[in-house]
Amino acid sequence: QVQLVESGGGLVQAGGSLRLSCAASGRTFSSYTMGWFRQAPGKEREFVSRISTNGRTTYYTDSVKGRFTISRDNAKNTVYLQMNSLEPEDTAIYYCAADPPPYRSSWSSWGQGTQVTVSS
């Protein structure tokens, strides 16, 4: 298991930007596919983005394509989510998660979440 701690959330106006960070400790960070999820009030948790172990392959849910960018720094055991052109609909608690080999989206480790609030 890897331990995850998110940071970087906050309150921002629509059109603004935030960068979320997720610091990992424990077992080898570079062996995990990493992902970001979010949960808005009254809604189920949803997938936002994921990144492969070497950072070369990324996926995004349609609603954030072109606005969010996921990246990772394996030397720093950290994954990032750069969020631009934020919309009120992006308001949610954002969680990072780790998917161990064989990468079947088991998402075995989760952080505690960081709140993102976008005002209109």
Write the layout of secondary structure elements.
Blueprint: E1 2-7, E2 10-13, E3 18-26, E4 33-39, E5 46-51, E6 58-60, E7 68-73, E8 78-83, E9 92-99, E10 109-110, E11 114-119
Parallel strand pairs: 2-11
Antiparallel strand pairs: 1-3, 3-8, 4-5, 4-9, 5-6, 7-8, 9-10, 9-11
Summarize the structure in short.
The protein has no helices and 11 strands.
Describe the structure.
Helix content is about 0%, strand content about 50%. The mean pLDDT is about 95. Strands 2, 4, 5, 6, 9, 10 and 11 form a seven-stranded mixed beta sheet that branches. The chain has a four-stranded antiparallel beta sheet with strand order 1-3-8-7, with no helix packed on it. It is built from no helices and eleven strands. Strand 5 and strand 6 form a beta hairpin. It has about 120 residues and is mainly beta. It starts with a strand and ends with a strand.
Overall structural class, as computed from helix and strand content, comes to: mainly beta
Outline, from the CA principal axes? globular
Runs with pLDDT <50, length 5+?
Answer: none
Number of helices: 0
Q: What order do the helices and strands follow?
A: EEEEEEEEEEE
Total count of strands: 11
Estimate the mean pLDDT confidence. Answer: 96
Query: What is the distance, rounded to the nearest whole angstrom, between the alpha carbons of the first and last residues?
Result: 39 Å
Helix content: under 10%
The percent range for strand residues is over 45%
The major β-sheet equals: 7 strands, mixed
- Rg over alpha carbons: 13 Å
